[in-house]
């Protein structure tokens, strides 16, 4: 992966109309359309899988043939490719190859500094056990090459605690209390999803979480902050979709409350957005949240090996290195 996401030295090809006539803004538009991502219909996910939903009905791909024409196109076009493509990872109940801490950390460590700077959009699908205590987010945020400007965290209906038993919806605030965003993070979206008839129950959590202010770490002073993310004035966005009432081939008794004649249920998704604000949070607030204490980033190999072993135990599916490399090829550009 390192070789496919590195920026290569090139000669400017003034004899080519693409570079000698068209301005950079037009070239970027061309690259954007030519490298546009799409869902691979030939490898569609089962509709009853835990990771099937609108926008994720199959693996996302992009046709990178244009980038293989010459080094100049590769170098310039790859920046657009990385900028426009949203890179998704699942933490529990995800498709093979992009699930678990190990796959995510391995991917970002493989990026060159230039590629890391160009990659702007990342999405995490997080089960509650992975998200709630905040330690997993902190570990990934501490990776030097994890520098997206936009992060979306999606909590699917099947990610909530004890959804199988229709238990009351709960979410600890620990992950918000200890949240320290990676340098350069300018927008955080959190998507909350549940069955439509449980909306009111979910909204109590959404409104509570909306009040948190989330600091973003400085890339100069590891104990300092660039600013913070705030959602108090941003509108909530809602949308609904219909999906099968079965999940992983199983029928759940409580789904019958809202099941349609065609065997589907309606899901509601509420998205909240935190935007970046330059400035400092109240010192006493930060101290009360323990964010002014010495913060150690655990990046040594021994800790990574221990974390990877824990990932294998926690994830619902095995994260095989070969599967990861195969899946990775769908997203990488040609050499």
UniProtKB/TrEMBL annotation:
It comes from the Eukaryota. This is Uncharacterized protein. Residues 291-335 are annotated as: Disordered. Residues 299-335 have a biased composition (Acidic residues). It comes from Paraphaeosphaeria minitans.
